[in-house]
Amino acid sequence: MKIKSLEPFILHLPLTSASISDSTHSITHWGVVGVAITTTDGLTGYGFTGTHAHLASDRLITACIRDCYAPLLIGEDANDHQRIWTKLARHPSLQWVGRAGITHLALAAVDVAIWDLKSKKAGLPLWSYLGGARTERLEAYNTDIGWLSFSLDDLLSGSARAVEQDGFTRIKLKVGHDDPNVDVRRLESVRKRLGADIRIAIDGNGKWDLPTCQRFCEQARDLDIYWFEEPMWYDDVESHRLLARSSTIPVALGEQLYTVDAFRSFISAGAVAYVQPDVTRLGGVTEYIQVADLALAHRLPVVPHAGEMSQVHVHLSYWHPASTILEYIPWIKDHFEEPADVVGGVYKRPEQPGAGTTVLAESFARFGKSLA
Ligand SMILES: [Mg+2]
Q1: What average pLDDT does range 81-86 have in this prediction?
Q2: Per its UniProt record, what InterPro entries does this chain match (predicted)?
Q3: What is the CATH number for 44?
Q4: Which CATH number fits the domain that encloses residue 196?
Q5: Is position 354 within any domain?
Q6: Are residues 42 and 68 in the same domain?
Q7: What's the gap in Å between 74 CA and the centre of ligand 1?
Q8: What is the pLDDT of residues 174-209, one digit of tens each?
Q9: Distance 172 CA to ligand 1 centre (A)
Q10: Are 118 and 232 contained in the same domain?
């Protein structure tokens, strides 16, 4: 299974709404930026990272794959995921310019493609290739009903639809208005509409500071918030440690962390309760496993962030013993041969060989962007 060729790609896929916003970002498309790797035995593996469909920076990722990584990969045995990962991530000249950011997002795409190849070669879905399913039932939580840009009416009707029609028992709502009282009132309305049995998590996308978060948590303490995700700036370990100590609402984070070392800093400080790795920001499946094992060693639950909209994480969550529930955002699933589908609030277990990353040919044709 020698690597014969690599073909980077950029797709910009429309969302389920015309546009959405959280406290920090406003987008109209999700970027699927990655690489198809073909081997001498005729297999093709697909891997990608997730972006905000910003073409200029997407092209930096594909340029890194094409110009920096491809020459290191041609002729390598695609079975050797760890050797390949180390060769790319610890290449002295590339390590010098990026242990995070563009080079790491490009590494994620390559590594996921390698795992897609390995499990396709074995003829098994990735979860089975890794060692088998830990559960028969992987519960999903719905994020796509709770954007900050939604009016209160839309928030209420979307949440009710997710619970009453689609069978979700868990949802996540965005917070982060300039006035946190607005968020408290929105949460009170949704809690009142859905009742006490539905699990409601919230996500601040890193906007507020520590005193704002502490005041907000005090006001929201009776709303049974399942977790408070990314309450503050992504890299600020100490403020998250202080918030975790001062509030009864558990802290969740990890979607903006690039390395196992960053996760270790938060975990060892007691600054995170729900660990949220993402294969598209970490260096792929290889580094994701290191983070999930680290969480397991600390008896912390793993709830991945869906930067690949759960196409890969559905495999990892059915398999890894520290996994619990999994995020659901249905923006891109229908562009894959085997969509990460949810029925009655539960993820269907994938059955096709590979990592769930094989993009449909017609999606390449319709939504592909020029790499130039
Ligand atoms: Mg988030």
Answers
A1: 98
A2: Enolase-like_C_sf, Enolase-like_N, Enolase_C-like, Mandelate_racemase_C, Mandelate_racemase_N_dom, RHMD-like
A3: 3.30.390.10
A4: 3.20.20.120
A5: no
A6: yes
A7: 36
A8: 999 999 999 999 999 999 999 999 999 999 999 999
A9: 9
A10: no
Helices (H) and strands (E) in the chain, counts: 14, 14
Measured in whole angstroms, the distance separating CA 236 from the mean position of its chain's CA atoms is 20
pTM: 0.98
Ligand 1 centre to CA of 372 (Å) is 31
CA of 143 to the centre of ligand 1 (A): 9
79 shares its domain with 204: no
**Which residues make up the environment of ion ligand 1, defined by Cβ < 5 Å?**
203, 229
Determine the distance separating the centroid of ligand 1 and the alpha carbon of 355, expressed in angstroms. Answer: 23
**How far apart (Å, rounded) are the C-alpha atoms in residues 347 and 344?**
8
Q: Are residues 98 and 114 in the same domain?
A: yes
Ligand 1 center to residue 205 CA distance, Å?
A: 6
**Distance from the alpha carbon of residue 201 to the mean position of ligand 1, in angstroms:** 10
Q: Which of 229, 232, 175, 225 is nearest to 200 (CA)?
A: 225
% of the chain with per-residue pLDDT over 70: 100
Instruction: Give me ligand 1 centre to Cα 241, in Å.
Output: 18
Contacts of residue 364, Cβ cutoff 8 Å, sequence gap at least 6 = 9, 11
Q: How many domains does the chain have?
A: 2
